[in-house]
Design goal:
Elements (H helix, E strand, L loop, with lengths): L7 H11 E3 H8 L3 H9 L12 E3 H18 L5
Organism: Paraliobacillus ryukyuensis
InterPro entries: HTH_17
Protein name: AlpA family transcriptional regulator
Length: about 80
């Protein structure tokens, strides 16, 4: 996917809407920040930026759906 921006303000708006920090990612996924680091290290959650760790929101939302399905399958007692 190719993105084009008219100016720096548009770029910053896009980045603020579409990048998540490790803390925001952990909160959204309902996991610890350490687990986010492990997922990133193992390549299961691709990084948009290494330091500080930043993730694309769309990728995190896809991972959230995957984790929710796994929780339903392996932790049915949590419902």
């Amino acid at each position: 996917m190719k993105y084009q921006f008219q100016n720096d303000e548009d770029l910053l708006t896009f980045l603020n809407k579409n990048l998540l920090s490790a803390n925001e990612t952990a909160e959204l996924l309902g996991i610890s920040k350490a687990r986010v680091g492990t997922l990133a290290k193992n390549g299961k959650l691709p990084l948009a930026k290494e330091q500080p760790k930043m993730f694309l929101k769309s990728v995190v939302l896809e991972k959230k759906e995957e984790l929710e399905e796994l929780r339903k399958k392996y932790r049915p007692y949590d419902d």
